[in-house]
Design brief:
Distance between the termini: 36 Å
Protein name: HhH-GPD domain-containing protein
GO molecular function, one term: catalytic activity
Number of strands: 0
Order of helices and strands: HHHHHHHHHHH
CATH architecture of the largest domain: Orthogonal Bundle
Strand content: under 5%
CATH superfamily of the largest domain: Hypothetical protein, domain 2
Helix content: 55-70%
Largest sheet: none
Number of helices: 11
CATH class of the largest domain: Mainly Alpha
Structural class: mainly alpha
Number of domains: 2
CATH topology of the largest domain: Endonuclease III, domain 1
Shape: globular
InterPro entries: DNA_glycosylase, HhH-GPD_domain, HhH_base_excis_C
Length: about 230
DNA sequence: ATCCTGGACG
DNA sequence: CGTCCAGGAT
């Protein structure tokens, strides 16, 4: 029974594409930039994390300088993003590690590795979990891994794609294999967009939802709202 | 003035 | 499961 998921993925992807457009894959950025920005975005709103990223990039234009910086001054630089004490530590350690190991603070070598190996390499870094590792590879290298953030997890749950008791990481691993490579990027982006605009955590706007017909979420507000 | 949101780790 | 944080929404 829970194996009707596969066909519905293509259907949902199409519906979202018609509603929000088919986002083109934009030119890849340095993987280290993407990784740092993604760490800053953990448990942090886009506007806050992006502001912090710009400040950090401005202060340490080549990431190498982070290795010799005081965590305190890194923390002050990214303070507007929140969680600066953990994140400054983690970013400094990560850059120092790569720099020490590879001689430069870059991650482009990941592009030459098999998908799984690159993913596991990132996962092994402290402060890099499944979502961050996947985002780095998808946005930095166009490698079709499927990051599951809180929006995707929520919307996917309502769509019936998430099994009972299945956590984010398990879902990310399993679902990845069900999504055709070329759908990974647009589906990821459009599900997030949909989660933000319509399928809110608290009060989803099911009446304005382009997926309403395809969604069997049980707690859907009733049609007659008057 | 409180409430809410957002990943990874100890 | 508690902790880490700021800024925007209510």
């Amino acid at each position: 029974m829970p194996e009707k998921i596969r066909p519905s993925i293509g259907k949902i992807e199409g519906m979202l594409g018609r509603r929000y457009g088919h986002p083109p894959w934009t030119a890849s950025r340095p993987l280290m930039d993407v990784l740092v920005e993604t760490i800053l975005s953990q448990n942090t709103s886009d506007s806050n994390s992006h502001r912090a990223f710009l400040a950090l990039k401005k202060k340490y234009p080549g990431w190498e300088a982070l290795a010799g910086a005081q965590t305190g001054s890194i923390a002050r630089t990214i303070r507007s993003g929140g969680l600066e004490n953990i994140k400054s530590r983690r970013i400094k350690d990560l850059v120092s590690f790569i720099l020490g190991k590879r001689g430069k603070a870059g991650l482009e070598f990941l592009k030459k590795m098999p998908r799984e190996a690159a993913y596991r390499y990132l996962l092994a870094i402290k402060g890099v979990g499944p979502k961050t590792a996947a985002c780095t590879l998808l946005f930095g290298a166009g490698i079709p891994v499927y990051p599951v953030d809180t929006h995707i997890y929520r919307v996917s749950s309502r769509l019936g794609w998430v099994k009972r008791k299945e956590d984010r990481e398990s879902f990310q691993e399993r679902f990845r294999k069900l999504v055709p490579d070329k759908m990974v990027y647009p589906l990821h982006l459009n599900l997030i967009e949909h989660g933000r605009r319509i399928c809110h955590p608290r009060k989803p706007e099911c009446l304005d939802c382009c997926l309403n017909k395809a969604c069997n979420w049980k707690e859907k507000p009733h049609e007659s709202v008057h």
